[in-house]
Design goal:
Layout: H1 6-26, H2 28-34, H3 41-58, E1 61-67, E2 78-81, H4 87-95, E3 100-105, H5 114-121, E4 123-125, H6 130-145, E5 149-152, H7 171-178, E6 183-188, H8 191-195, E7 205-211, H9 225-244
Parallel strand pairs: 1-7, 2-5, 2-6, 3-4, 3-5
Antiparallel strand pairs: 6-7
Helix pairs in contact: 1-3, 3-4, 7-9
Length: about 240
């Protein structure tokens, strides 16, 4: 029976990349104008949210969100989530209304078309370069001063399929403490099941998201980075464990 699913899975993957590319091609002039000035980023962010929702709907994903707490408008946050799928980017954009900037791997800038806008709107980091990691702090500071938020997947990459939640890097938490902004943990329950990095897998269905209670950083010093990291990871891990049972 599994053999008959292979044509579906191959077609499903191709369909995903078509959905990613089509809005970018159709809206290319508008997108290009929206990235010419940093102060126009909130408009670009609105277009990015439409792009994300278009892809999720086109793939047959129904987003279901539970929120323990709501972000305030015009306030900066550090959004974090577990990382299991290429759709994590789209789901984060669909769920979070506060304009934010992704901090992500520079390798994604090589993706045709998508990479053109990715490297011009996101904060890219080369994790093998200490100089690059330090530059992230300066770029993030400028974006936060402009009233934007930051989004980081603190696992630093997608772990192997059998790993429920990998260890977290300190960068997101160090930034949050340095700039005294709340950390907002999100849990993505179904992305691995719906569209993992394993080609012959996945399919339409519900994508559940839970926005957990915020972790506040007021009066925290940089020495508390690891404690904040551990607390955030444990919150997400416990939620994933409940569903895995």
């Amino acid at each position: 029976m599994r053999f008959f699913k292979y044509p579906f899975w191959i077609t499903y993957r191709i369909w995903f990349y078509l959905l990613v590319a089509l809005p970018i091609i159709l809206l290319f002039p508008v997108l290009l104008i929206s990235i010419l000035r940093e102060r126009w980023y909130p408009f670009f962010f609105k277009l990015a949210r439409l792009w994300a929702k278009f892809i999720l709907a086109g793939m047959g994903f129904r987003v279901k969100v539970e929120r323990d707490q709501l972000p305030e408008t015009n306030k900066s946050y550090m959004f974090i989530a577990n990382h299991t799928s290429m759709t994590d980017i789209m789901l984060m954009l669909a769920v979070v209304k506060n304009p934010f900037v992704f901090v992500g791997k520079k390798e994604l800038a090589k993706i045709p078309l998508f990479g053109f806008f990715y490297k011009r709107t996101c904060i890219l980091v080369d994790r093998s370069s200490e100089k690059s990691r330090k530059a992230v702090f300066l770029r993030a500071q400028r974006r936060l001063q402009a009233g934007l938020s930051i989004c980081i997947f603190p696992e630093g990459g997608v772990p192997q399929e059998e790993v429920m939640l990998d260890t977290f890097k300190d960068g997101a938490f160090r930034l949050a403490i340095k700039h005294q902004i709340p950390v907002v943990p999100l849990v993505f329950f179904d992305n691995k099941k719906r569209f993992s990095y394993t080609i012959f897998s996945g399919g339409p269905g519900v994508m559940r998201v839970k926005v957990l209670k915020f972790l506040f950083t007021e009066k925290l010093t940089i020495e508390k980075t690891k404690a904040l990291n551990t607390k955030a990871r444990e919150m997400i891990y416990q939620e994933l464990k409940k569903v895995a049972k």
